[in-house]
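Sequence in, structure out.
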Amino acid sequence: MTKEEKEISEGNAVNVTEDNTAIIESAEDDSIPKKWYAVHTYSGFEDNVKMALEERIVSSGLEKYFGDIIVPKEDIIEKTAKGGKKKIKRKFFPGYIFIKMNVNTDSWHLLKATPKVTGFVGDQLNPMPVDESEMGKIVAQITEGVKRPKAKIEFSKGDGVKITEGPFSGFNGIINEIKPDKSKLEVLVSIFGRATPVELDFTQVERN
């Protein structure tokens, strides 16, 4: 179990800053138990729902029933039309947010009445909390995505590509293998008349 997963399982709160950094806070000094729940929203409105919920929770005086609200995102590096690179944030659970809360009549109605919220994932009347180990993995993925941004995947095996960076810059090749977990490609490059496999980052090539 990772540090993030352990801290989640011990009931510690998680806070995600505006730049998508996950921060594990100490356990809440609160007699009201809370668990993590997955909530379905209209796709594309996840951040709006988060902001609306935070405002409604404060205005209704129900803060004691709610903890953190997370829209899981990771940093992605993609190429621009001019050949440069830019960092964007991508939701890896589009259409969902995760809320730490105590489900009761008041908190349930507040959540359900929030615009663009469809409801809890699963049984709407008796929602099942997210498994603690799974929530730990989500937080770890957020943290890892901030530390090591991934390249946007836009390749397929057999694609012809041109190498734009590194010692083989200017060479053409064929994608032989895609390694999305490492953001790398194995490209077959013709060197001295022989097809030679070269491992490259996604950002070091572009499609022909």
